[in-house]
Structure formats: C-alpha cells, structure tokens
Amino acid sequence: MASQETSQKKKVPFFASLQTKYAMSYLAIFVVVLILLNTYPVTASQELLFTSKRDSLKSQAAVMASALMELETLSSDQVVRVMNMLDDMGLDRILVTDPAGLILYDSLKDDWGGKTPPTETETEKPEYRYALYQEVVTALRGSDVFYSRYSDKVFTSTAACPIVYRGMVIGAIYIQELDQAQGALLLNLQKNLRNISLVVAAVTLVMSMVFSKMLTARIAALLRAIRIVGEGEYGHRLQIVGRDELAQLAEEFNQLTDRLQTTEEVRRRFVSDASHELKTPLASIRLLADSILQNEQMDEETVKDFVCDIGDEAERLTRITEHLLALTRLDSLPAGKTEPVDVAAVIRRAVNMVTPVADAAGVTIQEELRSGCMVRCTQDDLYQVCFNLIENAVKYNFAGGRVYVSAYWDGDQVLIEVADTGVGIPEEDLPKVFNRFYRVDKARSRAAGGTGLGLSIVRDTVRRHGGWVIARPRNPEGSIFTVGFPRCREEEGES
Q1: Could you tell me the CATH number of the domain that includes residue 269?
Q2: pTM of the predicted model as reported, rounded to 2 decimal places
Q3: Tell me: the pLDDT tens digits for 215-269?
Q4: Same domain, residue pair 367 and 440
Q5: Which of 186, 226, 357, 403 is the most buried (most CB within 10 A)?
Q6: CA 404 to CA 413: how far, in whole Å?
C-alpha cells in the first residue's frame, strides 16, 4: 500500500511533464510560423496588386484628362463626343464632371438611356445630377486620388484626377474598376496557404510528439536509474547514447554510481571488520569472566591473571573505539583552525612520548630534523600523524633495531620520513597498508596491540590538510613512510 501511494505521489501531471512542455513549445513556435505564413504572403500580394492598380488607373485617368483638356469649356455634348472616341479601357465606370461637380458623362446606362444625355426639348424638365464622391471633391481641388480595397472577393479600385486648362481646373474624371479575377486569385492563394498550414500543423504535431518523446525518454531513463540506485542497487548503470549533454549526464551518473558502489563496499567491509575486531576482545572478556564465575575453586593467583587479561582486552577495546571515533571525526567534522606549526618541535614531542616504549623493546630512535620546516596545520593532528608512524616503527621492529626520523623541506614541500629496520612490508601489501583494519601480520599486530586503524588515521589526517603519504620498502630491511605537506612561507613560520 505504501509503495503504491509513493508511486502515485511521484506521478507527474500531464501538463507538468517535460514531454508535454517540449511538445507545446514546438507547437507554439510552429503556430507563430504558420500565422506569418498565412498573413505575410497575402498582405504582400494585396500591396503588390494595390500598387499595380494605382499605377494603371492613374495612367488611364491621365490619358482621359489629356484628351479633355483640349476643350476650353466642358459641355455634355463635347465630353460625350470625346469619350466615345476613347476606349473604355476595361473600366466599370467613368464619370466626367464640371468644376461644380455636375456629371457631364457617366459610362453606366442610366435614366438618359445611353451615353448621349437628353436635350431639354426631349423632357419637360431637365434633370441635374452631381457626383458627391470624396474622390471627385479632392480632384476638383487639384489633387490626384487613388483608393483600393479588397472585400467580398472583389478588388474595388477608384481613381480621380483634375482636368486642367491653362492652369485652371475645368472639371474632374472619376474612374472605377471591379476586379473579380484578381480577387479570386487572392482567395485561392489564401485557401492554398490554409491547406498547407493544416498539413504542416498535422506533421508538426506528430513530429513534436515523437521528438519530445525521444528526448524525454532518455531523461525518464535517468530518473528511473536514480530511483533504482536510491533503493540500494548501486550496480545499476545507464547505457550511454549519443554525445550530447544528456550522454555526458549519463556518463557522470555512471561514474557517481561507481563511486557509490565503491563507498558502499568499503562501508560494508568496514562494518564487518569493525564488528569482527570488537567481537574478539568482547568474546575474550566474556570467556574469562565465565571461567572465573564457573570455577569456584580457582586460586587467587589465577584469578588475578584472568582479571589482568580482562583488563588488557578492555584496553584493546578502548583503543579500537578511540580509533573508530577518530576516523568518524575525520570523515564528518571539518578541519579545525590551522596555524603555522614547527614540524621539528612536534616530532621531538612525539619521540619523547614513544621513547619509553622503544627502550622497553630495545629499539633506538635517531632524529635528523632540519630547521625551517613549517606547515599550516593543527598541533594535535600533526602530533597524531608523527606519533602513529613512530609508534608503528617501534612496535614492528626487532630487539636492537633502529628507527630513523627525519624532517626537511624540498622546494614548496615539507617532508617527514620515518624509517625502521623491522619486519618490513611485502611489495604486494604496500598499496593496502592504509586501508582500515588491514594488517600484514595479524598475529603480530594483535600481539603488539595494533588495531589496523593507525595508518588509516594517518592517511586521512594528512589528506585533510592537503598533504600526502606513501609507504615503500627500505633496503636492505624494514620500511619507510614519507609524509608531504605544503610548506608554510609566512614570516612567523620562517626560521
């Protein structure tokens, strides 16, 4: 039930998913493109047709005005006679007016019954008509006029120009053209663009869904992999496809899971080793305590020996616990406040503390400390590094052996070397000596009171302060441990 509720909570809403967002973004881009495709060509075609018709109508009006300006005054008979001599040029209507706007000629068949207006003798009362058009009024004021519009599938274009005789406006010409052919052509263009847009929109919709799914499929695979690894399956890996940013992200994920898997293996091994190391002294303590309780006739001397053994195991258990706490502190807590520290002074302090143990084991410690070896560290951390290395060199040495401790600087590095004439370390074990709970000779290590954590503490402490540590065999016998720290060049740290 809990797993089902978790999966329902993690389900992404449709409109919040990346696939939908990518698809909608693609569609939004194509909608803008389609709007431009359906508007710009039509608008450009209309402007082109308007320009063509303006030039054509103005030219035709100018020709008619040139023919009529030869007349000193305009009368109906003269205008009709001149206009009958001209071709109608495919125009739908032609009007000629006098300076007052009175229509002298109209190409449309109206009440006159033809292009020749009736005389006053043919009607009892003459009929006067005026051209009340804005274009005519403007033309009578001496300006050329053109107007065009597209409506109801028809281009309606009008033009007007004044008739000028010796600098005086003696009339005006008004012409009109209704172009259904060009209107039908523009309508077909709109329909074709609309059909193309529908096809492109359908293809775009399908392609956007396909592309967005292809893109989000890899993201979904990464999300599934993260959930799988989050559940503890650190061996899961992503298949790297392509060479884009998602491929790099998948590669980084695989490297991260490699590190997680390695860390988990180290953690499990550490827990197992720690449990084993803690179990051994605890089992010894319990066995010794049970022996004392079950044997009521045990003599006092034997009881004292058993109690001493219990104390030794408890002390060993305390050392293991302290080392584990030290490693935990190194893993979790930040480094303390550092300061320039004199390496030689810290080494002398560590040697003084180890000297009683060395005297008891018959081991001689020799020092060779150069002045001016200053490092930025903490007193306690540097002391722990030096103490552990010197103590190990004494513990794993032979009676009559020697330990050589030196400190010197080389360029920007301060080097600390601890060499011994002891049992040495096999070549194949050198890379492992800094691992936690790793011991070359477990029996000798337990006899010497070792926990297998001292060198791990040394390595982690040195790295904590930007240094390094290595181990190598010493010729002809023994081992050499070398620690390097960045040299401190501050005035208070110089000799």
Answers
A1: 1.10.287.130
A2: 0.45
A3: 777 777 888 888 888 887 878 887 777 777 777 888 888 888 888 887 777 677 6
A4: yes
A5: 403
A6: 20
